[in-house]
Amino acid sequence: MRILLVASAFNSLTQRVHAELRARDHHVGVELALGDEPLRAGVAAFDPEVIVAPMLTTAIPKDIWSARTVLIVHPGPVGDRGPSSLDWAIHEGEREWGVTVLQAVEEFDAGPVWACVPFALAACGKSDLYRNEVADAAVLAVLIALDRFACGRFEPEPPDYLRPDVGGRLRPYHDQRYRRIDWAADETAVVLRKLRAADSQPGVLDELYGREFYLHGGHDEDRLRGSPGTIVATRDGAICLATVDGAVWVPQLRPRRTACGPPTFKRPATDALGSALPASVPEVPVTPAEAAIRNTWSELRYREEGAVGYLEFSFPGGALSTRQCRALLAAYRQACARPIDVLVLGSGRDIFCTGIHLNVIEAADDPAVESWLNITAMNDVVEAILTTTDKLVISALAGNAAAGGVMLALAADEVWCRESVVFNPHYRLMGLHGSEYWTYLLPRRVGATEAERLTREALPVGAAAATALGLADRVVPGDAETFWDATRREAARLACSAELVHRLVAKKQRRATDESAKPLRAYRDGELARMRRDFAPDRPYHALRRDFVCKVPPAATPPHLLG
């Protein structure tokens, strides 16, 4: 079918739906909801059989939905209505939730129901939940709805919000009145729900050292204690705030924007506080191995199961700053020094990696200098993985990867991913040539022709398509827990298999052959020469980065999305 996706942004869910529909041979276009007239023109130009809105914050004009079937994805069960569905669900500690596909009508979330898929609410932040359980349920619901639309015989039923078994209600926007933390009274579980319900937007407004900030992210702490509402420790850019019965970690802060001030954006919490953070607040480090056995926050965790090592990393939003790249490199080298045969890299359940940290770069005194430091630090991590010849390295993707994060994954010997993962193996939308040895890694995987197409088209690639292309080697269906169960079984099998020695010998030989044909240093130098030009003050990268970080919407739907 000709399917037009209408969305307020080409976000992770819209990308996932786009990739899933293309994998099923539908002709898919995207039109961003940037105003009624552009939307009308886009719909007329594409002339879809059906419109799907995976993520929409504004109403679709009546003349569109009255003339065509428009399917709206609502992140709540049948009967739930309002703009803050997930926020309320997390805030109120719901255990079961759902995604409903409704037909657009005059009233929000009140149209006939085409499909509804339930899911269990995991104890995590809203953005993590959105990219995992919500996205999985939303894709299934969209596919069911489209199958029903295609058959031509399905009659969607208007939801009966008065039925007690449905329990429908229209809830208000979940503003800061509901999010405010009462540090003197709220227990840790309540604080965590409030923080997680606001992650990653809009955050929880609070005051620290006389300044107002939005708190982003919320994680347990098992040992530290202090006066409720005070910062008792820092760790790797995060702050630890005491509660009445414990403490929570907050990795990022966003200053509250003043009436006439510039847009603000999320930064590592200690960076945002700057000199306001007292020197008396201690930095309390934790090793990756210790973090793996404690209930505390850490960007890095390391554990071993027999001859298999697992280096888990979890960076907010998936981006790696210069500091984070160096920390990851140090942890990787420590893991490689251990007596293991297989090393598995990945995040527990969310984003694998998205490349360099544009927010940290934007906040730097000299963004061009910080860009250079960040990309070279990222290259160092990729090079270390590429040159590891005495261990089999597996990239295990429970979540999405983009730009340099894709190349980080491809540096390993094998790439295993959940069936829900979306790859974005390109840089050009940020005005960059790209580095992380992509000119070596991508053609090695998919061939020169496909590498050129992927980087030029700049469209998301789903897990099935990635496997067909050669970007991934193994796809595992199911949720993150199922994925990691399968990963552990297969990694353990490889570690004790007779084929391991032969694979390591072949790996070392191939690296030597490739090095003699063209040294890794040549790939790196060539890429960085282009990147140095891209980082020059007059290049588009700086404006594109600023718009991305400050969430400035485009003036029109980018041409590569139009289908």
Give a verbal description of the structure.
This protein is α/β, with parallel strands linked by helices and 563 residues long. It has three domains: 2-165, 3-Layer(aba) Sandwich (Rossmann fold); 180-276, Roll (Methionyl-tRNA Fmet Formyltransferase, Chain A, domain 2), CATH 3.10.25; 299-478 and 496-549, Alpha-Beta Complex (2-enoyl-CoA Hydratase, Chain A, domain 1). Helices cover 39% and strands 21% of the residues. The protein is built from 20 helices and 27 strands. A hairpin with a 4-residue loop joins strand 13 (238-242) and strand 14 (247-250). The longest helix has 26 residues, at 126-151. The model has no long low-confidence stretch (mean pLDDT 96).
Unreliable runs, pLDDT <50, ≥5 residues? none
Number of strands: 27
The CATH architecture of the largest domain can be named as: Alpha-Beta Complex
**Overall geometric form:** globular
CATH class of the largest domain: Alpha Beta
Strand order of the largest sheet: 2-1-3-4-6-7
SS content category: alpha/beta
Q: In percent, how helical is the residue content?
A: 25-40%
